[in-house]
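In the current project phase, our protein records have gained a structure token line. A sample record follows, to show the layout:
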Amino acid sequence: MTRTQAALSRTTALTSAALLVAVATPGQAQEAFDLDAITVTANAEATAVERSGSTVEVVEEEEIRAAGEVRLSEFLNRLPGVSVSNNGPAGTTSTLRIRGAGGAYIGVFVDGINVSDTASTQMAFNWANMMTSDICRVEVLKGAQSALYGSEAVAGVINITTNRATEPGLSNRYAVELGSYDTVKLGFNSSYVTDNGSVSASLTHIRTDGFSSADENLGNTEADGFEATRLSFAGEYDVSETMTIGGAGFYQTSEGEYDTSAGDADNTSDTEEYGLRAFARFETGAVENEVALQYYAIDRRYQEGSASRYLGERYGLSYSGSVQLAPTFDLSFGGDYTREEFKSDAFGTANDGTYKTAGVFVEGAWAPSEALDVVLTLRQDDHSEFGGATTGRVSVAYRPLDDLILRAAVGTGFRAPSLYELYSNFGNPNLDPETSVSYEMGVEKRFGPDAFLRATLFRMEITDLIDFAGSGYNQVPGTSTMQGLELSGGVPLSETLHLSAAYTYTDTEDADGDRLVRVPEHEFNVSLDAELTEALNGSLTLRQVYDTLDNVPWPGSGIVALEDYTLVDLSLGYRLNDSAEAYMRIENVLDEEYQTVYGYGTSDRAVYFGLRGRF
């Protein structure tokens, strides 16, 4: 039996055992889906999750808080279809993938602000600095979403909402955490709510000595530290019964140390990042409108033998409107304009580039019956460098029974080459946009309000993939594919015990028939949450990852298979009173030695203690 077959056999057995518990659990009433679960990303207008034909994972504040103060990408790694690779400890490059597609294909928004780095190699968001500290909600929307979100949403969209005011009057929250690697994390949030509006502000800070980015098991002992401070705010005010104005913003500064896979080095990075968004929502007759302005900027400085600097900016203006044309048909429409800029001073050469994109979209949502929802979205973009591009998406959600959903979606996408791919030292001005098409179909069955099973088949095809080869970026003729299966489920084993599990199989192939790197073929997650006493709760999570390939870095060459691994994490929380909780968290309980990127290290067993509360 090969390693792949053994891994698949073990994973399939574990997945089946965990997921089939839901089917075998007796006494679960056949209740309808929870209509309180809403997605704001799947369609142009807020939609109940069970009415979405696209797969969307919604993570609420309670689940985020239970995980402790961790890197957000690691928290999302437990979701089906999501995988993460890290180049070392906090502050080093962290890449999140959806169904095998990396950051260049994923739109990331924080409080409505597009935070994809316009100066990065492929205009992707770096998850290195994003912690869960000031996050209250995350949506992960899977599949091609270019028809609604444009060029960066080929594989999906992640929408992050920071802490919001929830109680009338003034309320405050705090969090303090200490632990391994001399780590200190601090967080404070204050919010105020009136009858006409709300405002919220958060301040978080992290400092850690870290561990060696270059794997310590290969003889690298120098720890790579990290320090970051983040300020975020959001608010809105009802000017009248038909008009609301508001805004959100953040500022973050960070300093870190890092290595290359070749070994220890004294490399450092300094990053300054900020974003702003202002909006006005108003009604004109039967039409609901929103106008928004946004700005994002990042300034990254590196010292790696010689100094280098990368600056990126994004200016955005958008309008969206919606109207109910009939009891069964809603029409949404809008347009946006984006200007993106890039400057670099690296390897002794200064480079810069700018491009602009204007787009319009229209979306029709048809519900001919209570059981059926059909959504069609069309978009036309005009890119200053590449001309026009048309994308579309059709999604269907059908509920033949109150506790059964059938889903299907198909969408097209395009990804314009990043400014770095075009204009950097390694750029190629002759690149063309990538084009793609994605498909998914799935079924979800409920067994009462808290138990479910979900299965989704997916496939994405990318034509004319852009890849780095030799001394620069080039187009790869042909089609690359990412396809597979997602399974997930959850069930209450008792009034105080809840089991959830997820399995993802991802089969990838580039135009030459080779597998894509850093994409696990099999990934399994299981979580057991327990209320041990009235005041004490606990969570045990297990992650197994099999069959991952990576490139051998320069000066080597070729492909290497990363070791399979199993991670176990444990957390306990004790409620001191109605407004405070003490907790502890043990990461990598088994002290597993593993890599998610060849040559780069991961955390040993680590223990953290914290206190959080409100007043």
